[in-house]
Specification:
The protein has 454 residues and is mainly β. It has eight helices and 21 strands. Helices cover 13% and strands 50% of the residues. The chain has a 21-stranded antiparallel sheet that branches.
Length: 454
């Protein structure tokens, strides 16, 4: 049983996922640019900003444009290194009872650990802007994945101490979900109002979705009681999942193959009253995916008994139990978690009292974001407060800083790059402490973006 639990937990940690696909510029400024993003950055942030002209009329981005992010609510890098990496002489580390209790004490009053993993790949992103039309267009193809898991403290207790006699382990907080899909997008942002310096713009992006696969574990209400002769379990769990055909043996991978189809859209609104201030708001991923192939549901409410946890044959009834309760379902609908963003930005170098001192562009941005729960993929809402600072000390050398506060942690981000008149290369770290390998970090993230301008 210990072996099976370890495999499950390892899988939880290595799955890669995504809520919002952001470029390096957006990540570096702490995801605070809903009011001042332009060009390709508008596609992932606020479609109404497509209406505003940036450096060039056309921006084209293709691989590599990679976003990777990991967050967890309990373990820091230092604690992981202390307890789960071998000794200095590379010998295995044996945890004492004190070490095990110290690990469990990290949970404090929280009875579960939350893990957020997200990743995305920008296959193709194109934006164009025409002053004559007072608007801009975009098309994009992006691979998006995200994953969320809630692992109960009792699961860690079982792994660390084993099946202690006459102990009841509760797994009520064991939940998890993940999804992988490809989106094909087309969008338009246009200026509703343009008089002197003041502008108001609206934008919309329509998306066609190829659902590659997903899983959802919910309604878990299970517990295991250890006795002197066996482990007795009450198992109540519901699992939905789907996967594409190319995972089957003998099938060849097809880029356009999928297990589900769906649609979603983004909308945005921007207001620029003058050269100094700008305001923006957007709603992203309002949509769904309907799974039509290889879609299954497992619903179990039963009891089980394991007499010898070291015998592989003891787990065969459990495997049969899952197979016997597996039913294929058709047209199963998954509602995507949607995100609401609202914020403002200040062009500091445009303020009259400061413009004489600072001659280079300096933008300060603030943003509030909320990722809203979805029954199948996210069981609660998550809020983020962001503050960002963009400086262009030299025309080709941007410097970006950001601060993001969330339930998981408070992190400082950093980014830079090489920006020319025809090509941009940007890189961002979502946690500045990564530069120093700080032991206190609980999040990890890196984003690389490139684009051509003409």
């Amino acid at each position: 049983m210990l072996k099976i639990l370890l495999i499950i937990f390892i899988n939880f940690y290595i799955v890669i996922a995504q809520i919002n696909f952001n470029t390096a510029k957006i990540v570096a400024s702490g995801n605070s640019s809903v009011a001042f993003s332009r060009g390709i950055e508008s596609i992932q942030n606020n479609p109404s900003n497509l209406a505003f002209f940036d450096k060039k009329n056309w921006e084209i981005s293709f691989l590599p444009q990679i976003n990777l992010n990991f967050q967890n609510s309990i373990f820091s890098y230092g604690e992981y290194k202390k307890y789960f990496i071998g000794n200095a002489d590379k010998s295995p580390k044996h945890l004492s009872d004190k070490d095990k209790n110290d690990i469990l004490s990290l949970f404090n009053s929280q009875e579960y650990e939350e893990i957020f993993l997200n990743s995305s790949i920008g296959i193709l992103n194109i934006s164009s802007n025409f002053k004559e039309l007072k608007g801009g267009f975009c098309i994009s193809i992006n691979e998006r994945l995200y994953n969320f898991n809630s692992i109960p403290k009792e699961a860690f207790r079982l792994i660390l101490f084993g099946n202690t006699l006459n102990t009841n382990y509760k797994f009520n907080d064991l939940n998890g979900s993940g999804i992988w899909f490809r989106e094909y997008s087309i969008g338009y942002g246009f200026q509703l109002y343009n008089k002197n310096i003041s502008k108001i713009a609206f934008g919309i992006i329509l998306k066609y979705l190829n659902g590659m696969g997903y899983y959802s574990i919910y309604n878990t209400n299970s517990n295991f009681l250890t006795t002197d002769s066996s482990i007795n379990g009450n198992m109540n769990v519901k699992i939905n999942y789907a996967f594409p055909n190319f995972f089957e043996e003998g099938n060849k991978y097809s880029f356009f193959e999928s297990s589900g189809k769906g649609q979603s859209f983004d909308i945005g609104l921007s207001y620029i009253p003058n050269d100094i201030f700008s305001f923006g708001a957007s709603i992203q991923d309002l949509g769904y995916i309907i799974w039509k192939k290889n879609s299954y549901e497992i619903e179990i409410d039963t009891t089980s008994e394991i007499k010898n946890i070291f015998e592989e044959d003891e787990y065969k009834p459990l495997k049969d139990l899952f197979n016997n309760h597996k039913n294929e379902i058709y047209n199963n609908k998954t509602i995507l978690p949607y995100t609401v963003k609202i914020g403002f930005a200040i062009n500091i170098n445009k303020i009259s009292s400061i413009s004489e001192i600072i001659s280079f562009p300096v933008i300060l941005g603030f943003q509030y974001s909320q990722i809203n729960k979805s029954k199948q993929l996210l069981n609660r809402n998550y809020n983020f407060i962001s503050l960002g600072l963009d400086l262009v000390l030299l025309k080709w050398l941007p410097i970006r800083f950001g601060y993001t506060h969330s339930k998981f942690s408070s992190d400082f981000s950093f980014g830079t790059g090489i920006n020319t008149t025809i090509f941009d290369l940007d890189i961002a770290l979502s946690n500045l402490q990564l530069l120093f390998l700080s032991k206190s970090i609980k999040t990890f993230g890196i984003t690389i973006s490139t684009k051509f301008l003409f």
